[in-house]
Amino acid sequence: MDRRTRRIHRSALCLLAVVLTLSAAAPLRPAAPPPRTVSAWLPYWDQEAAYRDALEHAAQIRTISPFWYETKSAGRVDGHPGAGERRIVDGLHATGIQVVPTVMEQLKPGALAAVMTSPAQRATHVKALLAVVRSRAYDGLDLDYETIAPTPEPAYPAVRDGYADFVTDLCARLHALRKQCFVTVTPKTPATGRVWDYRKLGAAADRLRIMAYNMHHAEGPPGPQSSPQWYDTILARATTEVPRAKLEMGLPAYGWDWAEGSKARAKHLTSTEAEALRRKVKAPYALDPDSRTPHFTYKDGRTRRTVWYQDARGTAAHLPVLRKYGVEHTVLWALGFEQPELWGTLAAG
After folding, report:
1. CB distance 165 to 122 below 8 Å
2. Burial zone of 135 (CB within 10 Å; 0-12 exposed, 13-18 middle, 19+ buried)
3. 143: domain CATH number?
4. Is residue 226 part of a domain?
5. Residue range(s) defining the domain that contains residue 148
């Protein structure tokens, strides 16, 4: 080895020693936390329990939408009991959770459609909603407007276009205030959801939340809340019209209890209530092979009743469909309804 080669060799060894010394001295950086992919609605009628639930699982939760406001007319938006409670807003913010309250409505048939098809009424309603978002340190608003969903065939194109224009205007105004704009919709399939213009809504909003539940509802015959096949149909359409990163798939943490042979409305049960009832009546646990959701039957006096609900096992069987379509975000209906095991299922994706 000549003198020049020895000098290069010694320099390389010194450099390596410095690198090794610095590496040993430098503290290991903690791994980045997993992304928060779960959002959830917070029911005002069980606000304290739901709030504690949110704090317990804050590391997984991206956004909480307290179910706090109800539209009564174009110019009037009322608060439910406990709406805007600063202790809850501040407490959620302290954990890094966004607070995007939900505005819902239960207007008479045709009333919301009349607002959406009138430019003047739409403008009035946008002002009313902006007053809500300015009233607290909110991060935005979530619109859950459902009474327009069953708009009759002759009227739905005008309502669809009016609602899309309204959302586009509202979202632009919210963005100017540096606020988020979320829109909650029912599933769009070949037979449902025609009133929603997913493309325009998805272009305007930061999140499009699809309520992927109530496949069988309280006024209809017994059956599952959802199924992988139904999710496939929903997402095959949604992902062609809305960027995947903007989609939140709504997951149920509840079920219905029907009286067989009766036209009476089914009883609502949370997932925890349904499982407690199953154990009480000593019904075997059964996961339906088609819908991958649990169900059971029992006798209440002389009445035979059927319960369909969703739990952590069923949700685990549905999540592969979301992965298939590259949809990472979910929104849970609702905090406090779910079994504790569901959070592990959601963390696993």
Report:
1. yes
2. middle
3. 3.20.20.80
4. yes
5. 38-252+311-348
Cβ neighbours of residue 81 under 8 Å, at least 6 residues apart? 44, 45
pLDDT in tens, the chain (349 residues): 554 444 544 554 444 444 444 444 445 555 666 789 999 999 999 999 999 999 999 999 999 999 999 999 999 999 999 999 999 999 999 999 999 999 999 999 999 999 999 999 999 999 999 999 999 999 999 999 999 999 999 999 999 999 999 999 999 999 999 999 999 999 999 999 999 999 999 999 999 999 999 999 999 999 999 999 999 999 999 999 999 999 999 999 999 999 999 999 999 999 999 999 999 999 999 999 999 999 999 999 999 999 999 999 999 999 999 999 999 999 999 999 999 999 999 999 8
- DSSP letters of 226-266? --HHHHHHHHHHHHHHS-GGGEEEEEE-EEEEEETT--SPP
Report d(CA 253, CA 334) in Å as an integer.
6
- What tokens does 42 get? 């917070």
Report how many domains make up the chain: 1
d(CA 329, CA 250): 9
The answer to whether position 234 is within a domain reads yes
- What's the rounded Cα separation, in Å, for the pair 133 and 101? 9
Q: What sign results for the dihedral spanned by CA atoms 147, 193, 205, 337? A: positive
125's tokens: 């309603």
